[in-house]
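Help needed: design a sequence for this.
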């Protein structure tokens, strides 16, 4: 496969991943479908790791990868070099999303423990005592309903998306450098042996 086609395939793959990341991050603002006050939303959601990191910072290189992979003015060495620069940006966005999502999973959600005060009941737990591995501790959060499951599912989705995007963007860095150095496609030369 030539580097242009590989670039196009990666670009096409990044679009649905970025869309899923944006939707997942937006859903974190509405735990269990409820509209909460700003002070009742988990703090790590405000880092916009799905909207900005795995969303916008990945959509930009995806557009360039499609251009670098297609025929025309962008299917040249300069287009591949620009796709490398933007792929580094996409890698940073995917890695940022993965890191923030990991912190969100480790720290747990902001919830009401029954006294009307919202706090982080799992922030000081050790990894051995983590709520992730002990489902019986989930009952400590009374409001919003199912907030722990909501956060685990959405932060896990964002973690996986961020890792996949970072890997794909890293592959595009290698692919783009190859396309920049060697050209976007190796064409086989045809020789006319009948004229010999």
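Sure. Designed sequence:
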């Amino acid at each position: 496969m030539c580097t242009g086609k590989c670039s196009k395939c990666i670009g096409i793959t990044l679009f649905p991943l970025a869309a899923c990341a944006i939707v997942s991050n937006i859903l974190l603002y509405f735990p269990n479908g409820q509209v909460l006050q700003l002070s009742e939303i988990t703090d790590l959601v405000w880092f916009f790791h799905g909207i900005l990191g795995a969303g916008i910072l990945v959509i930009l290189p995806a557009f360039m990868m499609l251009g670098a992979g297609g025929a025309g003015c962008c299917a040249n060495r300069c287009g591949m070099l620009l796709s490398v620069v933007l792929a580094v940006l996409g890698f940073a966005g995917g890695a940022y999303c993965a890191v923030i999502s990991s912190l969100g999973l480790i720290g747990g959600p902001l919830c009401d423990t029954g006294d009307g005060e919202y706090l982080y009941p799992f922030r000081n737990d050790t990894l051995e005592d983590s709520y992730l591995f002990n489902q019986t501790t989930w009952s400590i959060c009374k409001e919003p309903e199912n907030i722990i499951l909501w956060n685990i599912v959405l932060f896990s989705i964002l973690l996986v998306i961020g890792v996949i995007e970072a890997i794909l963007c890293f592959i595009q860095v290698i692919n783009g450098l190859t396309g920049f150095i060697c050209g976007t496609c190796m064409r086989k030369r045809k020789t006319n042996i009948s004229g010999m």
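Helices lie at 3-28, 49-69, 77-107, 147-182.
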